[in-house]
Amino acid sequence: MQVTDLFLVFLQPLNKAKIKYMVTEAAGVILYGAPRMTHDLDLVLEISSIQAEKLALFFPEDQFYCPPREVVLLELGRPRRGHFNLIHQRTGFKADCYLMGDDPLHKWAMEHRNKLDYQGNEIQVAPPEYVIIRKLQYYQEGHSEKHLLDIRSILDISSKRIDRPRLERMLGDAGLTTLWSEQFPD
């Protein structure tokens, strides 16, 4: 049985297409924190309309569900929260693709993303500060403890990678300083 890697099944075609992306959310936690189960990959894409037109070339329909180009172009036109999915047919793995739009946190993170070696492939990962901010926002919205556990694992495992003064500024900009100090008082 051939094992397919959740990361590479989506990231190799994106690298080949020269589309700027960054891995984030649960997969970011896996790379910066403790391993955990996930069957989807969360990505932020910086994609042009020309690249959107050609996306299906890199995610062919005999291997992937890729939305029609009209859908991708429609989502690309949204100033915020543009989104579409890619699905690997054989495994059912899914990539949730969020588009840059004019979200300032996306823009900052894309400019500061980390390039990591993953099984001999370069992959682009959102900075840990971004992953922490997004996880804390999700906790604030839904109060799921898993987001706090994810943040704690990043703090425990990747603390040297985190720019603490920048994180504190970002928490303030996002209105999360009080929540942060309540949940992470140390």
Question: Mind explaining what this structure looks like?
Answer:
The protein is of the alpha+beta class and 186 residues long. The protein has a domain at 6-127: Beta Polymerase, domain 2, CATH 3.30.460. The chain has helices at 6-17, 25-32, 49-58, 69-76, 104-111, 128-142, 145-157, 164-173, 177-183; strands spanning 20-24, 40-46, 64-65, 83-88, 94-99, 114-118, 121-125. The strands form two sheets. The protein has a five-stranded mixed beta sheet, sandwiched between helices. Strand 6 (114-118) and strand 7 (121-125) form a beta hairpin. Helix 2 packs across helix 6 and helix 3 runs antiparallel to helix 4. The longest helix has 15 residues, at 128-142.
Characteristics:
7 strands, two-stranded antiparallel ribbon, single chain, Beta Polymerase, domain 2
Task: Describe the secondary structure blueprint for this structure.
Layout (H helix, E strand, L loop, with lengths): L5 H12 L2 E5 H8 L7 E7 L2 H10 L5 E2 L3 H8 L6 E6 L5 E6 L4 H8 L2 E5 L2 E5 L2 H15 L2 H13 L6 H10 L3 H7 L3
Parallel strand pairs: 2-5
Antiparallel strand pairs: 1-2, 3-4, 4-5, 6-7
